Hints:
With 497 residues, this protein is mainly α. Helix content is 76%, strand content 0%.
Amino acid sequence: MCKVQEKEEKTSGDSLKNSTASNLPLGQVKGRVVTQVLACLVASLGNLSATAVYGWTAATLPSMEEDPDLVMDTADIAWIASIISIGCVIGSIFAGKATDWIGRRTMLLVMAPILSGGWVIVAVAPNIAIVLLGRIICGISTAFVFSALSVYCAEVPEGRLRGRLGLIPSLFMTSGVVLSYIAGVFFSWRISCYICLAPLILMFLLLWAVPESPYWYLLKGRKDGCEASLRWLRGQNYDFSADVAEMEAKIKSVGNKVEYQELWKPRTRKPLLLSLFVATLQQFTPGNILISYAGLIFISAGVENHRMAILISGFLQILFTLLSVLTVDCVGRRPLLILSTFITGIAAICLALYYLLTEVLGIYCPLWIPIVSVLTAVSGYCIGCRTVPPLFAVELFNTTIRSTASSVYLFYNRLLAFAISQVYPFYNEAYGAHVVFFTFGGLSIVSCLVAFFVIPETKGKTLEQIQEHFESQKKGKPNSIHPSSEVSADTSSGNIL
Length: 497
């Protein structure tokens, strides 16, 4: 070993002893940032179109109700909003293994024209039945996009960057919702479909320039491809030998044959339960309802300029998602989730009180109350509940099971989303908006309390370190992730890593 490397090792060792801020392996220089950012940005372009599918109904449902060519009742509205989740549930059954088979990047390339086709079918639909056909094709496609993208953006960055870069898909997710808002407010619902599919074309063209995940290459036994990918991502001067050795050792220890029963083995059971909990936490908040049905909710609350309120809601979503992306590696995943559920729950309860006073008791309340309540709820939702769960769910699993675990998480998440989106219009019609938002507000507060006690913190840790933690717990061994630092297993404080 040369003197320069010895000096770097000593410096890194001292840094680990004096601070837990750095988690780079000893002797390792930092990789090039710009190419890692570029890869995640290009891949995430598909999320603009994929999540526009979910936000599209917020601005277009009111105009679709006014379209003389369409006849819609409560059931039609519920199905238009929720059928994408059924499509996503169907797609998620196959998404994980398909992503492991052909690759994360390749899956995005394959799905781009299929998702575009779904948008076109909706745009030219002569009736509700064809609209639903296009929407379910979009839903199936989004399952593959979400699964491949979340894994890709977790595997491409170094540990020190994974929090911020791993949340880029969430930033583009929010931006996709806002894109659908803008398209729906300023254009007809048919033209808005073409606007929403445009990012897919850009992603398809640019994705040829970025590499496949290095983890996937190694999973397929292609060490040369793994090294070439790391060289492109980290830079020519980056010594990735330690990274490759650690990845190879992990794959060898867990094997590369993936079966669903692997998820219930001792080393993956707790990560699975945690990932399903954060999916539940995300859906128990009213965030998705407020995003998908924003236009109808503002109208029911008496907001005259509901289109402007929708646009303001969209831009606040971008702002707070960006805030989440910028702070997640400093603040951590757990605090953002706790804060998010608390804010969203309180805002939902305030909105419920407004409906109770005005619709049930007949007491006048100023219109700024529902506007502020909805805007606060969606902002709080975006700072944690929208952004953190997808990243957190893929961080917890080892390389060989990560795509499969992601598809299971997505299946469960979208099944809950479908149930809530499908039930909401009928629940609202039968019991009133005040009952709906008291229910969601209460569930959010309960989720906040449970999250405080069970959610661990993963910020700054490499994927291998996270896996080693759960495996060492099951073996009854002391946690040796950071031999030079104190490691707590106190989940009540959230600092189990």
